[in-house]
Amino acid sequence: MRNEAGNIKYDYFFPLDDEETVLLIDSWENQESIDFHHQSPMMKKIAELRDKYNLHMKVERYKSEDTIPVSDQKYIRN
Fold first, then answer.
1. Which of 6, 23, 46, 54 has minimal Cβ neighbours within 10 Å of its Cβ?
2. What is the pTM of this model?
3. Burial 15-49, CB ≥16 within 10 A → b, else e
């Protein structure tokens, strides 16, 4: 997935206190890249596995901002 056109990031995280949860953070250049990704054979296989094992998912979307408000900058160290 990381090699697909338009992919910026595709990282998995596993909470130490919850063996049943996996957090995926993926980032794409644009909606067209996401749409292409969703049509890939790998995504079809993932959908089949979700059905087979009755896996559930929650999706949250975030959009990066080009500028960080001055009021937030004091909390960020680059």
1. 54
2. 0.73
3. eeeeeeeeeeeeebeeeebbebbeeeeeeeeeeee
Q: Which residue has the tokens 């995926």?
A: 24
Residue 18's Cβ-side half-sphere holds a number of Cα atoms within 13 Å equal to: 7
Cβ neighbors of 54 (< 8 A, separation 6 or more) are: none
Q: Which residues contact 78 (CB under 8 A, 6 or more apart)?
A: none
The first and second tokens of residue 9, run together, are 């990031």
The C-alpha atoms of residue 62 and residue 22 are separated, in whole angstroms, by 18
Average pLDDT over residues 29-40: 94
